[in-house]
C-alpha cells in the first residue's frame, strides 16, 4: 500500500494521482538537495505546494546551468585540442607569444571580446568595421521586426474587437424579443393576403363601372345631380380602397423573405451563425497568412 496517500485519496482516483505526482516531485527535490549538500543534513523547511513549486523551478534552472557549463567546458576542450593539433608557423607562434606576454589585462579582455563577438556574429573576419556593419544590420532587422510585431498586435486587437462585436450582435439577434417571430404572424399574414385580394377585386370592379358610365349614359352632359353625387361617392370609395390596398401591400412586403414557420426562422438564424463562423475562419486564415509572411 502506498503510505504517501491520504485516506481521502482512496475514494478519489484523481486526487490519488495528484498526490503520487507530488510525492515523486518531493523525491526529486530531496535527491537534488542531497547532491548539493554532499552528505550534510538538509536544513528543515516547510513542505507545501508553494515551496515545492519554487524548489522544482530552482532545481530545473540549476540543472540547465550545469548542462550549459558542461557543454561550454566540452567546447573549450575541443577548441584547445584542435588548436594544439593545428600546425602554427614559427612567425605566427612568435607573434602569439608576444601578444600573450605583452598584452595588458585590459588589452587581453578587449581581444577576447573581439574574438567572442566575431564568433557570435559568425563573421568571416574580425575587422571592427565589418563587425560594426553587421551589428547595424542586426539592429535594423530587429527594429523592422519589432515594427511588424507592433502592427500585428494592432491588427490582432482590431480583429478581436470586431469578433467581440459580431458575437454581441449575434447574441442580440438570437435573444432579443424584438427579433422573435410572433406566433400570430402566419395567421395575420394570411388575413392580410385575403384582404388584399378582395380589395383588388373591388378596385377592378369599380374601375370597370367607371369606364362604362360615359357609354351607358345617352346624354352624359345632362346627368342629374344625384348621379354626379353617386359617381363622386364611388370615386371616393375607390380611392379609399386603393389606399387600403397600398397600405396592406406595404405591410405584407415588410414580411417578405421571412419563413412563416418558427423553426424555419430559427434555421435562418443558424445559417447566419454558420456564415459568421465562415467569416471567422477566413479572418483566422488571413491573420495566419499575415503572420507567416
Q: Would you mind describing this structure in some detail?
A:
Residues 58-89, 262-289 form a coiled coil. It is found in: Cytoplasm, Cytoskeleton, Spindle. Keywords: Cell cycle, Cell division, Coiled coil, Cytoplasm, Cytoskeleton, Microtubule, Mitosis. Belongs to the HAUS1 family. This is HAUS augmin-like complex subunit 1. This protein is mostly helical. Among the domains are: 1-87, no CATH class; 184-216 and 226-292. The chain is built from 8 helices and no strands. The chain has helices spanning 13-37, 49-85, 90-102, 105-120, 128-175, 185-216, 225-253, 262-292. The longest helix is centred in the middle third of the chain and has 48 residues, at 128-175. The radius of gyration is 45 Å and the shape is elongated. The model has no long low-confidence stretch (mean pLDDT 78).
Short description:
Its main location: cytoplasm. By secondary structure, the chain is an all-alpha fold.
Q: How widely separated are the two ends?
A: 58 Å
- SSE string, helix = H, strand = E? HHHHHHHH
Q: Percent of residues in helical segments?
A: over 70%
Number of strands: 0
- What would the principal axes of the Cα set say about the shape? elongated
Query: Helical element count?
Result: 8
Beta-strand percentage? under 5%
Task: Give the helix/strand class.
Answer: mainly alpha
Oligomer: single chain
Low-confidence stretches: none
Summarize the main sheet.
Answer: none
Q: What would you report as the Rg, rounded to the nearest angstrom?
A: 45 Å
Overall pLDDT: 78
InterPro entries: HAUS1 (IPR026243)
Subcellular location: Cytoplasm, Cytoskeleton, Spindle
Main location: cytoplasm
Protein name: HAUS augmin-like complex subunit 1
Amino acid at each position: 500500500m502506498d503510505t504517501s496517500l491520504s485516506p481521502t485519496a482512496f475514494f478519489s482516483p484523481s486526487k490519488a494521482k495528484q498526490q503520487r505526482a507530488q510525492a515523486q516531485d518531493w523525491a526529486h527535490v530531496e535527491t537534488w538537495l542531497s547532491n548539493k549538500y554532499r552528505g550534510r543534513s538538509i536544513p528543515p523547511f516547510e513542505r507545501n505546494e508553494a515551496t515545492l513549486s519554487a524548489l522544482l523551478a530552482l532545481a530545473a534552472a540549476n540543472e540547465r546551468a550545469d548542462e550549459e557549463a558542461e557543454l561550454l567546458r566540452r567546447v573549450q576542450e575541443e577548441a584547445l585540442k584542435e588548436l594544439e593539433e593545428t600546425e602554427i608557423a614559427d612567425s605566427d607562434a612568435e607573434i602569439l607569444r608576444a601578444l600573450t606576454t605583452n598584452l595588458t589585462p585590459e588589452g587581453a579582455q578587449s581581444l577576447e571580446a573581439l574574438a567572442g563577438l566575431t564568433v557570435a556574429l559568425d563573421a568571416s573576419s574580425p575587422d571592427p568595421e565589418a563587425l560594426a556593419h553587421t551589428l547595424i544590420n542586426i539592429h535594423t532587422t530587429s527594429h523592422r521586426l519589432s515594427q511588424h510585431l507592433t502592427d500585428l498586435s494592432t491588427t490582432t486587437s482590431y480583429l478581436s474587437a470586431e469578433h467581440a462585436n459580431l458575437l454581441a450582435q449575434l447574441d442580440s439577434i438570437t435573444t432579443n424579443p424584438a427579433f422573435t417571430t410572433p406566433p400570430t404572424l402566419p395567421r395575420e399574414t394570411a388575413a392580410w393576403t385575403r384582404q388584399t385580394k378582395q380589395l383588388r377585386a373591388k378596385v377592378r370592379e369599380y374601375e370597370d363601372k367607371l369606364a362604362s358610365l360615359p357609354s351607358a349614359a345617352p346624354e352624359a352632359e345632362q346627368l342629374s345631380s344625384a348621379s354626379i353625387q353617386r359617381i363622386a361617392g364611388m370615386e371616393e370609395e375607390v380611392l379609399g380602397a386603393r389606399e387600403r390596398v397600398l397600405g396592406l401591400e406595404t405591410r405584407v412586403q415588410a414580411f417578405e423573405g421571412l419563413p412563416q414557420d418558427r423553426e424555419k426562422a430559427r434555421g435562418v438564424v443558424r445559417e447566419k451563425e454558420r456564415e459568421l463562423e465562415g467569416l471567422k475562419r477566413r479572418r483566422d486564415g488571413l491573420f495566419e497568412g499575415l503572420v507567416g509572411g
